[in-house]
């Protein structure tokens, strides 16, 4: 884990809890790319495995479980990514499959991002992820969603929930394995075109991933639990304060009680492939 701001490219990835539900079998929408363990968890609790809210924002069920959070000893990682430790997520939750779009966020703030510090990024395509959003604004957007959808509570994911959902049961460095050069199909990071145009020197994909800057949400392959853009595109806010990981196992860990900065995860279109690792 490392706190980085690159052109202040930020996004809120929302978690949905408390859907209500019943005992019926729910049909699986055609857009939902879910795994057997997600379907089993939904049947266990009598809830849908995937759903849309009143704005058409889509969510899939993330099953309860445990995982090893952080980097293993042989991984090329940062000190703040360690120590690797077990975290248990004690109850299932719903996570949005896409990063929040400009079209969604402008329902909350109609004038957002019409003026940006980088003119070439204004005003932002409706299908692209919203950027220039502070952590406080992300929290306010989540609260606004809940006020207009009274059956549910929306919030940012904790860092542990984010990494657990991103890994989707995998123990490799990335969703596609350990070879970072193969990630261009799964995420939008620094590539050869962006390197040349932007004049950035650090290493990224050894090819063109199709987008010079932020891509429309869902442009790349999802992970095993049907979540898109968990690697790259734009940074994603988490609920936690940034801090050193504790030793030993934890349940529903929410990070330190205070700090100087909030956690960002996932990397962006302008960062190296190394920053797109599960544990970064």
Q: Characteristics of this structure?
A:
280 residues; alpha+beta; five-stranded antiparallel β-sheet; three-stranded mixed β-sheet; 11 strands; globular
- Report how far the terminal alpha carbons are from each other: 4 Å
- Radius of gyration (CA) equals 18 Å
Q: Going across the biggest sheet, name each strand in turn.
A: 3-4-7-2-8
Taken in chain order, the helices and strands follow as EEHEEEEEHHEHHEEE
Number of strands: 11
- β-strand percent reads 15-25%
The low-confidence parts are 1-12, 18-23
Task: Describe what is shown at a glance.
The chain has 280 residues and is an alpha+beta fold. Helices cover 16% and strands 16% of the residues. The radius of gyration is 18 Å and the shape is globular.
